[in-house]
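Appendix B. Extra example for self-study. Work through it before the problem class; the solution is given directly after the inputs so you can check yourself.
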Amino acid sequence: MALIVQKYGGTSVANPERIRHVARRVARARALGQQVVVVVSAMSGETNRLIGLAREIMPEPDPRELDVLVATGEQVTIALLSMALMDLGVKAKSYTGGQVRILTDDAHTKARILKIDEQNIRADLDDGHVVVVAGFQGVDETGDITTLGRGGSDTTGVAIAAALKADECQIYTDVDGVYTTDPRVVAEARRLKSITFEEMLEMASLGSKVLQIRSVEFAGKYKVKLRVLSSFEEEGEGTLITFEDDEDNMEQPIISGIAFNRDEAKITVLGVPDRPGIAHQILGPIADANIDVDIIIQNVGADGTTDFTFTVHKNELNRAMSILKDQVQGHIKAREIVGDDKTAKVSVVGVGMRSHVGIASQMFRALAQEGINIQMISTSEIKISVVIDEKYMELAVRVLHKTFGLEQTPA
Amino acid sequence: MALIVQKYGGTSVANPERIRHVARRVARARALGQQVVVVVSAMSGETNRLIGLAREIMPEPDPRELDVLVATGEQVTIALLSMALMDLGVKAKSYTGGQVRILTDDAHTKARILKIDEQNIRADLDDGHVVVVAGFQGVDETGDITTLGRGGSDTTGVAIAAALKADECQIYTDVDGVYTTDPRVVAEARRLKSITFEEMLEMASLGSKVLQIRSVEFAGKYKVKLRVLSSFEEEGEGTLITFEDDEDNMEQPIISGIAFNRDEAKITVLGVPDRPGIAHQILGPIADANIDVDIIIQNVGADGTTDFTFTVHKNELNRAMSILKDQVQGHIKAREIVGDDKTAKVSVVGVGMRSHVGIASQMFRALAQEGINIQMISTSEIKISVVIDEKYMELAVRVLHKTFGLEQTPA
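Solution. Structure tokens for the complete assembly:
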């Protein structure tokens, strides 16, 4: 009998009507003869309501007590979903994180799972129950309630699937899978039947926010078969996230998708002396101010000077510029510092590009044919990113989607 | 160092402002050098909100899951109160019922406490913490969450006081103690410095709803010193509930208070054959319909017939009358059945009456002097109740309050 872990997020259980909808879906899986563990988040808005209450009491809430407080959010959902299942005649039983015993470290509000005791869950499954588990929470060695941090319910789902050696972990969200790119930008965007973990990580970090990165890493580590599905659509098999070394990935297409992101601004430090240590002198103060940096580029210099460019979140542009002008420019004798927030990043992602040369040139030619100037280039093993003028972003995504034939279902 | 258990109900923790108010009161007790355990209910309205959600999902919510659901109410309060204490610089730590390990039986929604493990609480107290415990909840042998039923937070407070052998269990409510009668009826009503457990039980069941009866019984069983105080007034020492056999009760006044209740209706079955088994034939169908009966009176008969009278809640009068007319009257050949919902019950309560004759005649004379007719009389060891026309209720209470000198503080 197949054992499936299904995870539903906050919008999927936002109110009693939606909880009943989830129950019907779970009941269908049972009717197909599957054993089912359901992992749920708090009803959407509930976690924020609780945090708001805490802040009214204590501006910087104590982490141990904050976990006691917000853990009630998922506890409410597991009880309601179990009732909804019973109301359909399906045997069901709820578990808090502590009741499963999802053992975590004691890093309150951002705990990491150490061990899951799956004995009770397995006994209930064998007894014909659907087991409903509170996501996002656990207990530490001393029995204190902990939480895994935002989005931790995905991690709970994957961790339980790993502990139970489940056949599949299904993540239900408000999209019905992972697409070749955003369908709002490219009408021909196509849902991928499968995508590799590595591509998923690149897609997620590039802005296709379907899954929590941490849960994907976790699934990769424990070889959990992960599938993204829509909780609102009845049909569809979503997108399976696979291991690159699976046999059925032999026919993996070269390029899986086009990701994009218009949240990054570009900063260029011009006329920097080309000597060792200069990158650290520029980026050290930025890191000290807790400003995240994404792409970093330094070209070989001429005349003893070079230009140094990097990107930060647009919200941080002004702060980063001030730091550079106040603390760095005079010190390193840079000629000029230029900021630009009219930029966008477009990336081509695919594990296949490792064994196929010429993807980069194909990409650059397609952009050139449309008159799109490339400002920065950054590459990894399975992606090529370019920074361009943001006004060309949609055009670039459409052109690249077509160039790599992503609208066509692979043979 | 004195060890105090303080229990605050839902209205005392209804919002962040009131929670901060409770924290200040707890902080004052700490400043006096007391060790403090605080037991709290859910914020007022929260339990009903949760039950409403459950009923939207499942008309008759599953008891196990209902307990999982409603137990979140107190869990929210313990976290918020602990934060409020920390915000005042007081070390504090919260415990759910399961974390204390308040072991109960598995009778979900009305569980009974079997055992409390006080080791962790005591260690935290000795470490200088205020310990904040969720009322109303526990866990059974298998680790399932249970609740004690409505008002169970009082019971939790008393049970923890018993387990810790606390010096006092203070129940904070929206009244500042137990009064000789309702001050809204008799302006001269006086707060009692102390009252015995037995009197308290009679007062509570007669309608002075200050404490849950079950918690009072529990306190009596484990000899816990119980004090009722106002959570809204800063001053006042409330009312101490004592054991009748305490030495300091030697000067207990004869009468402690006048209780009253206008919720009862009277039913008289006239012309009943005076033979064995008749009471069962009348009340059996009433009990089968789950209608509670309070006072029951049957007089000696004449001419082979008698009249049988009892009281039920006014809401149940019509149902009880139908049952009697449909199922009983013909069967037992009763002449007539008369219902009356214009009645009130007034009771004089006091342990002292056991050793003082003449209390009853003093009571009846006082009522007669005001022209108040007595319809029914019922007595126990420490109370005398009369049923009268409800329009005379306030008058009767005032007259009896004065007759027994309750407005005067005892010497």
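Self-check: Chain B touches chain A through 36 residues (CB under 8 Å). If your reasoning did not lead you there, revisit section 3.
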